[in-house]
Write a structure and sequence with these properties.
The protein is an all-alpha fold and about 450 residues long. It is built from 16 helices and no strands. One of its GO terms (cellular component) is membrane.
């Protein structure tokens, strides 16, 4: 039998573990040990459907995390006005969702590889919809913490890691661009869902906004899940085969630390720059526009840095992005007191900070191989949960310190220091991989 046909037969089903490594080697597959540019046995459009479906799922999940602020503001102003304890509890919900997005990464990546990318995404979408539906019947903030914060956060965490990793499994020459487009769904989802949520809230209330979101999550998410797949899954891997040896690799530990610092730094400017601009005399409406500019720049940055990674190397691109983000916090933020300077800050920070989320999974594939990309990326995201939990609260504590309520210099230095630490880690792994200065790595 022709060996190429055997390879195609072994790899025909995308999300079922149909072949072992030994079988693949025995058939003489030309690309054994590597991910092919296009997996044999699949239609040519399959890889593009994977990118589009991951884009949609990331937009639905992270877009709703971003949109929670609209619902929180309405509840604090109209439902729990004059009840500071309940308003304070509302403030924990966004943190819980953001924490869950990363915390469940290791479990999600592991399950995707030993079970099925597609089936895991179906479960995650169902859990997200359930969280929104349960939240629509909640009457107290602590109940919203359980439904929105924990249940919905779990669903987001289950889909985020596999949809970040799946596109890279289908491409070689355009791997960075494919990943960048998929994770750009985060920014686009926020831009679309936040104003949509605000319109529904003003007309129908928070309860119906949550029920409607549960409906479109379930419908659009289920359709997208049908196309999430990878070209090959190794059925020799089981739940007992977790890659504990990875923790003994110093490059792995460095990448984990880098992701922790990136996550701790990433969200703080988005949370506090509007307050900074208002304190400097810029109107609240203009400040919201500047944050929207940062979100647009973030989406563009995710695609552009992925595209750049295909030409100058993913590790080189990661160093550039972390360096630009650190520079924007140290050099631009303290002086971004006008609309023009604020726009420059939004563009620079949004572009560079967003680009890191395209490059992080690509760097994991570059450093540790593509066959365990989902589980490795999941480990990095779980470590990032620590950064998500402490980053903004520490920044808030700095701002609340004596004499700091209108002086954001200390906060900008804190965030810049986090990015500088991430830059140091990125440089270290770049040097460990290759000490040739101008090589494409």
């Amino acid at each position: 039998m022709d060996t190429e046909k055997q390879c195609c037969d072994l790899e025909r089903k995308a999300d079922e573990p149909v072949a072992t490594n030994a079988q693949r080697a025995a058939t003489g597959c030309a690309n054994f040990g590597e991910e092919p540019s296009l997996a044999p046995g699949f239609p040519s459009y399959t890889r593009y459907a994977v990118v589009a479906s991951c884009f949609i799922i990331q937009g639905l999940s992270c877009g709703l995390v971003h949109a929670w602020g609209v619902q929180q503001e309405y509840l604090a102003t109209n439902v729990y006005a004059g009840q500071p304890a309940k308003i304070k509890t509302l403030g924990y919900i966004g943190t819980l969702m953001y924490f869950g997005l990363y915390f469940w990464g290791m479990l999600a990546g592991w399950l995707a590889e030993v079970w099925s990318y597609r089936k895991l995404c179906f479960v995650g979408v169902a859990v997200m919809a359930l969280g929104q539906l349960l939240a629509s019947f909640c009457k107290e903030p602590w109940q919203l913490c359980l439904s929105e914060g924990l249940v919905f956060g779990l669903g987001v965490g289950l889909v985020f890691s596999p949809t970040s990793a799946a596109p890279a499994r289908w491409f070689t020459k355009r791997r960075g661009l494919a990943t960048g487009i998929a994770v750009a769904g985060v920014g686009v989802g926020g831009l679309v869902i936040a104003p949509l949520t605000e319109a529904i809230v003003r007309r129908a209330g928070v309860e119906w906004s949550l029920r409607i979101s549960a409906m479109y999550i379930l419908v659009l998410g289920a359709i997208a899940c049908c196309f999430v797949r990878v070209p090959f899954q190794d059925r020799e891997r089981t739940l007992r085969n977790f890659n504990w040896q990875a923790f003994g690799d110093r490059r792995f530990a460095i990448h984990v630390c880098m992701m922790l610092f990136v996550t701790a730094a990433y969200i703080t400017p988005y949370a506090y720059l509007p307050q900074f601009w208002v304190a400097k005399g810029i109107s609240a409406q203009t400040a919201s526009v500047l944050i929207a500019v940062a979100n647009v720049a973030s989406s563009v940055g995710r695609v552009a840095t992925g595209f750049a990674a295909d030409y100058i190397g993913v590790l080189n691109s990661l160093v550039l992005c972390t360096g630009i983000a650190a520079t924007s916090c140290f050099v631009v933020w303290p002086f971004a007191t006008s609309v023009g300077a604020g726009t420059a800050m939004s563009l620079a920070y949004g572009f560079a900070a967003g680009g890191n989320w395209s490059l992080a999974p690509l760097a994991a594939g570059k450093l540790f191989g593509m066959d365990k990309l989902a589980s490795n990326t999941g480990i990095f995201y779980t470590a990032s949960a620590v950064g998500a939990w402490v980053g903004s609260p520490v920044a808030g504590a700095i701002l609340a310190g004596p004499g700091h309520s209108t002086n954001y210099i200390q906060m900008s230095i804190y965030v810049g220091a986090l990015w500088l630490a991430a830059l140091t880690m990125a440089l270290a792994n770049r040097a460990l991989y290759s000490q040739t200065l101008f090589s494409k790595v």
